[in-house]
Amino acid sequence: MLMQYVLQTPLQKSDLAPLHAGDTVLLSGVVYTARDAAHARMMELLDAGRELPFPIEGAAIYYVGPTPERPGCAIGAAGPTTSGRMDAYTPRLLDLGLACMIGKGKRSQAVKDSVVKNGAVYLAAIGGAGALMARSVESCEIIAWPDLGCEAVRRLVVKDFPLTVLLDPHGGDLYESGPAAYLASLQ
Q: Domain 4-185's class?
């Protein structure tokens, strides 16, 4: 039976343990944005023994490059980008305490294994509905690498950000279980 959960960042493993692929989540709190260019720079910092631009322990990263905000709005359209471009960097961040990734699309086996190993989750944002996703963003502030433009690291404060569990801490993968459940329902 699929469930809906209300979660607040920073996230603890105990917050994520009940989640299963297909469950829905309303996420509130601080979420950081980072795409591939920012991830490459984060790896450079780590390789140099330096701190990341935000606390990674229990953090949620949203793979998004938002459009400029309109007057009176905290952010422009904020739909997810394809997560696979971050796969090379993700296991290292999960090992450092990253708890949640938000994006769209399948992930590599290495990422799936690291999600389970670290008790983390990968959540889907609604692709193609960037304006809808932006409604949940209460504030947005660039905190690192403004030269990256839309790919700069931002600190978002979100309220009831609507998400779906794609990868859960138990090895569940909605990209596998979803089609299987659909096919079973046809019989």
A: alpha beta
